[in-house]
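Late entry, flavin mononucleotide complex.
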Amino acid sequence: MVTTEPAPPAPPGVSRRHVLRGLGAATGVAAVAATGLLSYRAYDAAVLDPGGGDAHAPWRDWRAVPGPLGAVGAAVLAASPHNTQPWRFAVADDAIDVLADPTRGTGSVDPFSRERDVGLGCALENLVLACPPRGLSPTVTLLPGGDPVARVALTPGPAVTHPLYDVIDRRHTDRGPFRATPLAPATLEALSGADPAVHWVVDTAARAALGRLLVDAAEALVADTEQSVDNFAWFRATHDDEERHRDGLVLDGQGFGPLQLGAAKLLPPSSRAEGDRFWVDRTRDVHVATAAAYGVVTTPADTDDRAAHLEAGRLLQRVHLRATSLGIALHPMNQITERLDREATTGTASDLGPRLAALLPAGTRPLLVFRVGVPVRPARPTPRRPVAAVVA
Ligand SMILES: Cc1cc2nc3c(=O)[nH]c(=O)nc-3n(C[C@H](O)[C@H](O)[C@H](O)COP(=O)(O)O)c2cc1C
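Prediction complete; structure with ligand written out below:
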């Protein structure tokens, strides 16, 4: 995304996509410098301080906060679809309720709120990991029938730290290139914790087939104006937008090298159409081209319900934290399931469903797709709303 997730209006001729692809990043910087505005624009666009600013303060401030509010500080660092952060928390001394925020959806991209509930599961996992270091023993009850979607009861317990807790603030979605280093079966097993809900796609032919599917699904998504517009609504094109919204998809999260990122920030934003094209190109030329393996989180076909989605989120978050602790990059890629949900709501059908099913164990349903690999460079943090903004 510039993923399932694009970009904003630009004067014709000079857009981020044109310059990044056509001229090369260093040339782009030079072109902007020639206008004499480089230093002001660099300051204004926070080129020199990726990961800085108030929008990133939650990554810096959470660890020292004691009690349930400190645990919520860890929860807000979780992954969420399009960085919508679709959560609220009701906090008491003896319990934390996790609630969905119905205003923070992605519309036609997630018509059944499946991805939103997965995101709530991701936050729940961080929340649970962050209780014991604060002397709180958590007991989780999923409440998939309504809101809250989960209650975490808290009782006093020994102050202990889980190794995955330590990497909560180092986990970032990596949309950059991965190295051509294969991942051993034992490594993949360590990532999934041997959970059979994760199906690995490693074999060359199957990987190529899934890669083609991901590109085809991206093409179908951008050809669907409603989905394209709903994606675009969550792209934050400027530093000001990031600081104002503290959510959404940002240039820092696109996996660029430092020069390319600097140029992208200095140049005028792309239009929606250009952002869509950029995403499809990146999907084909970077994401799919360099995936060492794909993981698919599945559920038994007859238990595709909200509880399964919350559990899938907890699992995705754990896999990503394990990957982080092992120095492995992870990138969710959900355009296929987003298209399948869209087809279900519009009464259409393509070959995407059968092609994906052919790569999965019989009797399972795909919930989430992600790629893994050895990163070329570290991924960067993205904005977060502060705890005060999400406590009910
Ligand atoms: C349910 C779910 C679906 C996601 N789907 C995609 C996706 O299709 N493409 C993508 O690039 N990122 C995807 N992401 C990653 C989010 O965009 C990412 O978590 C969010 O922008 C916050 O960034 P962070 O993970 O680096 O903290 C997904 C995350 C979740 C939880």
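Strands lie at 87-91, 95-100, 136-142, 150-156, 198-201, 293-300, 329-332, 364-373. Will revisit in the morning.
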